[in-house]
Structure formats: structure tokens, C-alpha cells
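Hey, can you fold this?
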Amino acid sequence: MTADIADLLSTARVVSLPMTTRFRGVTTREALLFEGPQGWAEFSPFVEYADAEASVWLTAAIDFAWNAQPAPLRDSIPVNATIPAVAADQVAQILARFPGCRTAKVKVADPGQHLEDDIARVRAAREALGPEGRIRIDANATWNVDEAERALHALAEFDLEYAEQPCTTVEELAELRARVKYMGIPIAADESIRKAEDPLAVARAGAADLIVIKAQPLSGIRRALDIVAETGLPAVVSSALDTAVGLSQGAALAAALPQLEFDCGLGTSALFVEDVADLSPHEGAIPAGRVTPDAARLSRLAASDDRRDWWLERLRRCHALL
């Protein structure tokens, strides 16, 4: 079951969510929400994405709003805290927004920063979480192989759970994984899955120990589950800085995974000053059920008229590509 453009436009709401801290250059997150027979869904490809890529995100949103989803295997999803590329003295304050979380994902390799900044930030996270906490890093494909090897050697003392997308290409990931195997730091693939024409290439090349999957960029929950099954690799479900509505789709994906070995990156509602619904972590987890946005918050967080019109026109263009 699908939707025509009139169906989408009839309930479309565009929101603009201010963030507590700049995250990957974003200070305000925009998203378009709409309601279908199954409930609310989110269409929120980043503004720089071309229509062809953005239309994949729309496919996922329509599927979530119009079709029944795979049956959940769990009703609560453990999540990690997310630490943007902030100064080390801000880390504890950000962690406090993620009550009960035992895992922190620390952003590294931010443009304009240096390895020393990353080391200080990861050290602060380790000190805040203690020896039993889990720390993973995410470089967003920024390093080359030599830079990544040097950085992982410098960060190894902090007992990393894994390093997410340290390099850009599958070939680089495979080379780095071979180089750092002796350190015992697993390599996770994110962009090499969600932005790849062939998301299975990572597994064939032996380039990763686990994969990071996101519902919207992979055209929906069913396709994401297929990719996990076909790669045969453990999976971490993460968000693309979604609102609570999009996070609920991610939670539904995590709930349907046959195995869930890792805390998921679905606690990012805590990075917003206010969200369209309450889905911040509680005791280190979020529920796996659907989310209905609060009407008052939709009005309060409504985007400006020109941004609303921009998103509605984008919706029309992307729908025409389906």
C-alpha cells in the first residue's frame, strides 16, 4: 500500500528543532512529518542531499506510515549517549542528558580540530563513564588510512568498543582493519552501507566487523533487515538526527532485529532543545512503540513559511521520482 502526493500533503507538517549543541555543522534540524493509516512518519534527508538520494528516504517514510511493519521481538531498545565534537570540559554536561546510558559515541575528526582534541574528548568520556562504560568513536569517513591508524593507536588506551567509518572507501576500511587487528579495535561501516550502491560490498571485502544501519536512508525497515541478514554481520541501529517520529522508526527496526548485541544510536532526541514528542532516553533505553507528535509542539516548532514551502516542494519532487 502506498500514497499519492495529495495524501502526503494533506497532513504534512514541517518542523525546525533547535539543538543544544552544534552537531556536524547543524544547529537546527528540519524535518517534514506526515500521517498515514499506520501512524506518523518522518521525511528528513539532510538539506544538501540531491532528490534522487532523498527519494529513498521518502520511500521509507511512506512505508512506515502506510504499511504494517515486521513484528517486534523486544519492547525496549538500549541506546547510547552521543557526544558531539565539543571541548572536553563539556562532555560530562552532555552525558547528563542521557540518563542511564552505559555507552557513549564520541564524534572525532571534526573539521578544524586536531587529534589532540579528539583524545581529550574521549578521555573525558572515559573518566565520566568509568572503566565499565563503553566508548565508540565516529569519524564520519574523514581520515585516510594512515591518519586513521595513527588516531586509533592514540585512542586505544581508552578501550574502544569500535571505530565507526574511520575512512571513506571499502578498500580503505579493509586495509585499516588489517592494520589495526592487533589492537583489538573492531571497525564499523556506516556510510559504506547507507550511501553505497552495493551495501553488501563491505561484507564481501572483509572490511568491517559490524555495520551501522538506519531506516530512512535504506528505504525502510524491511530493506534494512535484509541487508543485515545478507551481510551476516552484527548491526547497530542508529539515527540521522531524526525527530522523535523518525527515532520511533529506528526503534521499530531495532525491535525487529533477530539479535541486538549493541546499544543503539537512537537517543539523539536528547540533543534537541525540544522535540515533537518525548523520546529522550530513560534508564538508558527508549520504548519501541510508535510515536504521535504533540499538537502543541508541532505548532511551537513549526518552520518558517519559506522553509515550509521549500520542504513541500522537495516532497513533490521526490515523490515524482518514486
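Oh, and this one too while you're at it.
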Amino acid sequence: MAIKSAPFLLYSDGNGNIFEDTSLYALGRSGWDAYPVPEESWIELPDGGNLYELPGRKGIGIDVKTGDLRLCEKGWAVAAFVPPAHTGLFLAAYETQEDAPTLPLFCYTAAGWLDDKFYVTAVRIEKDIRQECAGYDDNIIESGADNLLKAYPHNRLVKHLMENCCMTYNCPAARNFAMSRWECPVPASPACNANCVGCVSFQPEEETITSPQDRLAFKPRAEEIVEFTVPHLETAPFPIISFGQGCEGEPLLMWETIREAIIEIRKHTSKGSININTNGSKPAAVEALCQAGLNSIRVSMNSARKEIYTPYYLPNNYQFEDLIESLKVARKYGAWTSINYFVFPGMTDSEAEYEALRKLIIETDLCMIQWRNFNIDPDWYLGKINVTDAGECMGILQMMDLIREEFPQLKFGYFNPPMERMKGNYELDFARG
């Protein structure tokens, strides 16, 4: 439901306390610029969302009395993390001071305060509840992790997933695995053939930010993969196993091992979906995996334009055209194809990006767009890819509406769908089943 008034700007005192400034209405940022936010773009901060202070940054708002844009001088700017299944529509609006530190790898959505509630600029893009905070039971997770470690005492992947991903980093996918449900993560590759600016598992020592988690440090064997994935596919509700996780490099570099594992898995069970989250850099490897029984592929990209993609991914020994070919190959074998589309207001919704995305959808016969929040410092990102002007923009919601209108068969979401949804019942509220 749309709000009746613009929320007030939020600021932090630098000591973990957040206040509203009732002399300023909150704005949103698109690209480099601050704008008033349409009322329909504000929603209450969803459960699982968080607020951050942005050190070295002053919030920009609209003066309640004069209607002029001005800085909030009371403290640091504030932004929101919007939880999975929600897509941010505007960035937080602020002015960065010269000595401001680079922000960590999180999303920075515009936020405000109205009628004793926090509001954010976002839309719920996915009905699936698989990563909602209310669905996690710490007692079940802890006992589930303990049971898995006891059941597979010599399996390095299970140890990595439970001790690191689940219990240390609170990875939502690993926690679901501990609860014996839905999508099970299967990291496979310690190496990568891209040098993504915002990589969450490896940052160069000279960089001003650190990665939020450690990367997988070994090459798993096919039998280690098969050992725990077959029982998951056999017994979990709406089961998926997914290669390509945030705690690894590029899984296609381990395609021979993954192919061996898929062949062996399918000897034991025909249930569930086998998915790979990938940069799509090796179409021949994708073909080999599809031949072995891969059901689903999700290719990550910050842009459907080569000139925006390349300076962010900094690819080694592959190019943007390989991603397109990988999506085509997967469709040739009847696999479900998604793009993991990093949404950056003021870039994603530019007219040039819209046209490039249309071309990609048509060329690849794409099944789904996962409208993902881009976890990166906005100023740092635009500087790294050398964008000073994104051109004319239409707004994220309008772009979504135009894509839906032109491609009614294309699905929108945030997560890899299970086999039941791929086969036709896409709107299935499966996570409550």
C-alpha cells in the first residue's frame, strides 16, 4: 500500500543510534543524482532488513518548509539492507566527504521514517520464503549441523558448509541444508577466471575493502559431492542442489568433477533439480554438464552491455559473448536459464541497458530474471567502471513493467526455482508446503 507522505530523513550519531530529522524528507539516489521518491516505491522495512550508518557521508533531503535540497548536518547518512526476495528501487542519497572510507560489500537502499515505522524503497519480487528470518530455527539448525557432521565425518565439503558457512557466516542456503530443506549449496571451485570488483570471497591485499567471507580452499572430489547431495535430493521438500556459491570461485573451472558427480547422482536418484550458479564463461563445459543432466543454470551479470560488464568482472580468458552462448546452449538442452541480475538504480534502468536486456532475452530465450540487490559501495563501483553519466533512466519499476509487458512468459524472482515450478506451476508457494 502506498504511503500518504514522504518519510523523514534518517541520520546516525556515530554511536549506533539512529534518529529522524523532521526538517527533511528522505530522497533516493539513482546513478550519481538524488531524486524525490514516488510514494508507491516506499514499503515498510521488511523483517530481516537492517539499517546502517554511512561514515563520512552526509544525507541529502528535501527541506520540509522550502522544498529545496540540502544536507543533513546532524550526523552520518543512513541506508538500509533489504532482505532476500526484495529488490531495492533507489539508493540512499548522500554526499561523500573526501576522507570517507569505502563502504563494505552490502546493498545501500534508501530509507526513511514515518508514523513510527521505518520505510525503504523496495519491492517484493519473489513469494518464496526460503530465506526469511522467521523460518529459521536456531535449535534445529544447530542439531542439524551436528547430525550432518556426524553422518559424514570424512566429508570436507560437509565440514566446510556446516562449520564455516552455516555456523560462522550464517549463510542462508547452508542453514537450509542443516534444516534438510529446499536448496542445498555445493561449492566446488577454489579458483576463479574473473576478478570481480565486488567479489565477496577474495579481495586483493592492496584493496580498501575486505571480503566478507573466506573462499573454499580445496578441490572437492566427485564422491564427496555425491555422498550428501543424493540424500538431500531424495528426502528434502522441493529439493535443489546448487553449484556456484559465494564462498567459491567459478564452478565451471571444475566442470569435469561436477560432470562426474552429476552422472553418479543421477544413477541414484532422478528427484529434484541440479543447478549451477556461474559466470557462464565456458559454453563447452555448460554443454557437457547439460548432457550429464544439469537442469538449471544461473548466469551472473551486472549489465547486459559488454562495455559495463567487462570493467566490473575483469574476465580472464573469456568474454561477454561466452555468457550469451552458455545461455543458448543450456536452452538447447531444455535447461532452465536465469540471469543473476545485479540491480543498480541509475544504471540498470537506463535506456541503453533496457535495450541491451531486451536483446539478451530475445537472443537467448531466457526463462527468468533474478532481480538481485547489488552489494557494493555506489561511488566506488561507478568509479571503478568509469561511469560519470548513465544517461536517461526510467526507474526500476517502470523497467520491470516494460519487460513484463513485452515478455509475459519471462519469470521474475530472486531464487533458483525447484523442479515443480520449472515444470509449470511457477506461482506455487512451495516453501510453505
